Amino acid sequence: MEQTNMKASKGMNIHLRRIISYVVLILITIMCLVWFYILFINSTRSHAELNRGFTVVPSTYLLTNLQNVLHGTLPILTGLRNSIIVSVISAVLCTYFSTMTAYAIHVYDFKGKRIAYTFILAVMMIPTQVTALGFIKLVGNIGLDDHLGALFLPSIAVPVTFFYMKQYMESTLPLSLIEAARIDGANEFYTFNRVCLPLMKPAVAVQAIFTFVSSWNNYFIPALVLHSDEKKTLPILIAQLRGADFLKFDMGQVYVTIAFSIFPVIVVYLLLSKYIVGGVTAGGVKG
Amino acid sequence: MSNSKNNAVIKYNRWGYIFLIPFATAYIIFQMIPLITTIYNSFFENYRDGLTIIGPNFIGLENYKTLLESGKLLTYAKNTLIMWVMGFVPQIVFSLLLAAWFSDPALRLKGQRFFKTVIYLPNLIMASAFSMLFFTLFSNVGPINSILVGTGILKESYQFFNHVWSTRALIAFMNFVMWFGNTTILLLAGMLGIDTSLYEAAEVDGANATQIFYRITLPLLKPILLYVMITSLIGGLQMFDVPQILTSGSGDPVGSSMTLIMYLNMHLYSKNYGLGGALSVLLFIITGILSLIIFKAMGYEKGVKK
């Protein structure tokens, strides 16, 4: 009798707990998405409609707003182009050279290897902001001021990506495979490009996305390095939009400009979320 | 024979250095030299007064003294920490809760992939665009005020950005929304790594879900919790994009949402390199100590030896 009672209460308990979890999860989902929904709705409405207050249904001004933004004062298309250039080149350089560095540490045995590895791990967490002053001075001295190269060249050396690649390599790249390639007469460079890189594809994909997104979103360093309208990336244009007295603006255009910077990343993310969410953990925490 | 093989191995191992060249070169140029110049600059008087450039003149530790005595540094450090705590507390609470639910086999939650995708989404959003969005949504004539007034909750629109705590709360809230998904996924990985036989044993002993969480899950999660907390603190010290855009760099109202990096940015922008250098060095030391804690706690040096 007592036992059945206990079982029943435990069953109720789990049922109730499940309902609570779903309710909380749905509320959290709303908390995460509602902003983007409002952004979408407001992008489709005209300035006059926006001034009349908020509604939940979209209007028909999306294309008009977009047209106005493209012909407006903010160089949004150049910004888009610059952002794409910086992010794509960063992603390529970062993943290729991080994999190469991880390969050097993983495959070869040389003097100073342990020191090099320890050093890279030790500096992994140091934020770029604390060296920004020296970086700006350096960029000025080597003629990269107001040049996109100043933003993508440093991504050749990103300790966090290196660490991720090294971790991944430990589980997927057997040294015997490299031995075999050597016996077949492949040189070391060929082995890296043709044997190691294809095996690392999943890790490269994950890190390419992360690097792309973080340089797409990067604001601090670009704002200090880029000055001319020709070179500015999207985050700087957003800041400029904020700096201008925005009430004078057509609010429909403001929303479309924000949407323009946010939605490409959302689309890419939704297409690739399977890999991204799985990739978050693999690098940082191990057991 | 063995000698020639040895030679071959040594010949191969030379490639280790060759493959390290790009990383080493880029690291030295773009991070090491800037770090040294930053430290070097912190010992010089070097700023602009209108159109004239003062310095650089060597003044020893004078910049550090000015920085520490002005009181601004402490205020901005306090602002940064307050907003970090306001964002971190709900973040860790929700992340623990969600990770516990996701990993609970008895709960069998459906749609986990969907929920994980959704909660991680804000992490990838451009912080500056997200802040601009919040600025327009919460402005005096924005949709949030129009909803609050329209439904009769408020009589007149609330000026979110003219009040200290509403501005701070919005910044903290945005940081919370942007980072709790990431933390949840890290904690979830940690929880899934816990040996399930421990849970089974506890259940046999009659422990309920709450007891299992506090007595088994939490203690075993300690290293990951430490990792999450310190990385979040390092991230918190770097807080910049959100308050910078939200307040247009002013840190208003009355400097109450000005963070350390916004302060650094002000110095860099006005080419006040002496004080900027000193501030950078202080931040470097703090983050250096914090990352040393992670380095030890995660046992990275053991991984190196292996």
Strand order of the largest sheet of chain B: 1-2
Helix and strand string of chain A, N-terminal first?
A: HHHHHHHHHHHHHH
Under the CATH scheme, the architecture of chain B is Orthogonal Bundle
Number of domains of chain A: 2
CATH class of the largest domain in chain A: Mainly Alpha
Whole-angstrom Rg of chain A: 25 Å
Give the end-to-end Cα distance of chain A, rounded to a whole number of Å: 44 Å
Per CATH, the superfamily of chain B is MetI-like
Strand-residue proportion of chain B: under 5%
CATH class bucket of chain B: Mainly Alpha
Q: Which structural class fits the helix and strand makeup of chain A?
A: mainly alpha
User: How many strands appear in the DSSP assignment of chain A?
Assistant: 0
| Low confidence ranges of chain B | none
Uncertain segments of chain A are: 1-8, 283-287
Find the CATH topology of chain B. Answer: MetI-like fold
> What percentage of residues of chain B falls in helices of 4 or more residues?
over 70%
Globally, the shape of chain A reads globular
Greatest interface = A-B, 97 and 108 residues
What's the structural domain tally of chain B? 1
N-end to C-end Cα span of chain B: 29 Å
Secondary structure: helix percent of chain A: over 70%
List the helices and strands and how they pair.
The complex is a heterodimer of chains A (287) and B (306).
Chain A: H1 2-43, H2 47-51, H3 62-70, H4 76-107, H5 113-122, H6 132-141, H7 149-152, H8 159-172, H9 175-183, H10 188-199, H11 201-217, H12 220-225, H13 234-243, H14 251-284
Helix pairs in contact in A: 1-14, 3-14, 4-8, 4-11, 9-10, 11-14, 13-14
Chain B: H1 2-41, E1 44-49, E2 52-58, H2 62-69, H3 72-103, H4 112-120, H5 127-137, H6 143-150, H7 164-192, H8 196-204, H9 209-237, H10 241-246, H11 260-269, H12 273-297, H13 300-305
Antiparallel strand pairs in B: 1-2
Helix pairs in contact in B: 1-12, 2-12, 3-7, 3-9, 4-7, 5-7, 7-9, 9-12, 11-12
Task: Write a short abstract of this structure.
The complex is a heterodimer of chains A (287) and B (306). With 287 residues, chain A is an all-alpha fold. Chain A is built from 14 helices and no strands.
